[in-house]
Amino acid sequence: MSIISETPKPPYYAVIFTSIKIDQDKGYDKISKRMVELAAYSEGFLGIESAREDLGITVSYWKDEKSIIKWKANFEHQKAQKLGKEIWYKKYKIRISKVERDYEF
Amino acid sequence: MSIISETPKPPYYAVIFTSIKIDQDKGYDKISKRMVELAAYSEGFLGIESAREDLGITVSYWKDEKSIIKWKANFEHQKAQKLGKEIWYKKYKIRISKVERDYEF
């Protein structure tokens, strides 16, 4: 996804997902796209931004913590999380943060 | 920078900088690298993660809000911010957020 998310006035939440992937695809691309679609239907979803070079960074935005917990528990997402650990990711880090202020140009 | 930052136990701050750049370099690459070096010497700096495809995402981590404000006010950084608006960026958004929890694999 190549656009900057139109998020509401803070406060809201950001999940910063930083990862290092294996070189091969192994089904990642398809499921990753599906997860973006699925997240967009999840309650409290506000937007998602993503870029990958050696490091991948995906930031998803959420109304509140409850929405984040609900998305994490989504059944199809749970299956993808399992594949992520077993196959696609060498390493990742997830940071849950509360956006307090923002500005743009 | 291609590694996942080794940040301390939360709470700490994350500055999520999402941008769309012009296609040409126009001095961006050199100054962008210099800013990463310079930020690393700034008080309260904890790490930085970056990736760019169509969209660029740079997340820098800071001890507290005071450190973020100090880095923003750095003279050399101010000059780079001005160039960013005048030359390199079509659009950007900066979100200041407080990391409340994190986990990794």
Shape of chain A: globular
Please list the strands of the largest sheet of chain A in the order they lie side by side: 2-3-1-4
Q: Tally of extended strands of chain A?
A: 4
Structural class of chain A: alpha+beta
- The end-to-end distance of chain A, rounded to whole angstroms, is 19 Å
Low-confidence stretches of chain A: none
Largest interface: A-B, 40 and 40 residues
Number of H/I helices of chain A:
3
List the secondary-structure elements of chain A in sequence, H or E.
Answer: EHEEHHE
Average of per-residue pLDDT values of chain A: 96
Instruction: Kindly provide the radius of gyration of chain A, computed on alpha-carbon positions and rounded to a whole number of angstroms.
Output: 14 Å
Main sheet of chain A?
4 strands, antiparallel
Q: What quaternary form is this? A: homodimer
Strand content of chain A: 35-45%
Helix % of chain A is 25-40%
Q: How would you describe the overall organization of this protein?
A:
Two copies of one chain form a homodimer. Chain A has 105 residues and is α+β, with helices and mostly antiparallel strands. The first copy, chain A, starts with 11 loop residues before the first strand and ends with a strand. Chain A is 35% helix and 39% strand. The longest helix of chain A has 14 residues, at 28-41. The first copy, chain A, contains three helices and four strands, in the order E-H-E-E-H-H-E. Chain A has a four-stranded antiparallel beta sheet with strand order 2-3-1-4. Chains A and B meet through strand 1, strand 2, strand 3 and strand 4 of A and strand 1, strand 2, strand 3 and strand 4 of B.
